[in-house]
Please model this.
Amino acid sequence: MKVLVVGNGGREHAILWKLAQSRLVKELYCARGNAGTLKLANNIPIEPTDIRTLADFAQREGIDFTLVGPEAPLVAGIVDEFEKRGLKIFGPAKRAALLEGSKAFAKDFMQKHGIPTAEFQVFEDLQKAKSFVRDFGVPLVVKADGLASGKGVFVCKTYEEAFQALDNLMAKKSLGQAGTKVVIEEFLEGEEASYIVMLNGDQYVPMPTSQDHKRLLDGDRGPNTGGMGAYSPNPFVDDAVESAIKEEVIERLIKGLKEEGIHYMGFLYAGLMLTSRGPKVLEFNVRLGDPEAQPILMRIEGDFLESLLDFYHGRDVTLKLDERASLCVVLASRGYPEKPEDNKEIRGLEGAESMKDVVVFHAGTQLKDGKVFTSGGRVLNICAWGKDLAEARDRVYGTIERISFEGMHYRKDIAIRALTKPFGS
Ligand code: AMP
Ligand code: GLY
Model:
């Protein structure tokens, strides 16, 4: 088969790495890809959001199956375009992708269908939003309605922070159209979990559990990012928590989609806060998480493409899991997430890639004259397996010591809470 993966990041490199192990694959393509995907696939110089050109390419090249990594093409309707042309693609159509494309839509959907989530209000008027903040009190969370690559969420501990976030989004339009409407919601406390399933109508198959680390700095400080590190399994999701997530979140979502007449095919990601009052949804994403996909895919055994195709065609699927733990740390450029530096030479990659039980997935990298340079905010994902999280963690941090580029930044505390706060406590 010829398979196309749409996207440029670590998640897409990990998807290709997994697909390359499939006996069904004849040729892999990636649009646009990076210096890592180049080793596994033909990088195609088409932007992930250039939907028509991608569909033209898939038709011309006879692509048998397409997988979409990031949200932007899904929200823009890539699935509708491919399906219109009879091309097979795994992902939700535009209407279903609104669950991620509009936080206001997602919150209304959750409220309507009894899915537990933080209390909230939606605003399009700055003064009304500020007056709500005064009445509601802090802490609270301000969220841009539209897509912002994980950077449109502001956890505000003080009134000043909340007013500033609202001014930036609604008056200064720091995120353009994405922030002209905002959701203001209750601040929730607890451990986070990323719970991702493959969903096809009312059939779903859970992927391994994981936890992301959204803040830029150690100790969950600094601005939100797309994600600075992740691991799997998530020990905070024990059997009882998982049952609650299935019943109260996934199955209510499926019922709600049915009632609204929305068919969903693709990965569905529930970003959760595990509170003392049960799991609450922070957000829905209509795709695999990045960096969660990296440790998740590392824990799936067997031919994932075969499972995915079976699932796509409505057949029963159970994923066989690697019992080991996996962990991923993101190496980012100085200036990420606001203004990442570019074009720094990366040293030590080969040595890192040759380490036992380690995989290096590329994100913002490019190849120039045989050398690898940084190209974007999140640059590399250093990942490893271990008999437990502690071992995987030691391997990852040991490997990072071998790699360097100017301005390299990473979190030193990925999975630290999972190690110090053992299972069930
Ligand atoms: P989101 O994109 O909505 O998942 O938000 C990004 C991150 O902001 C989450 O992963 C949490 O770390 C944090 N966050 C979002 N909403 C809340 C909330 N209501 N309470 C506490 N933290 C939140
Ligand atoms: N890592 C969070 C996300 O992919 O949205």
Q: What stands out?
A: The first helix runs from residue 10 to 19. The chain has a mean pLDDT of 96.
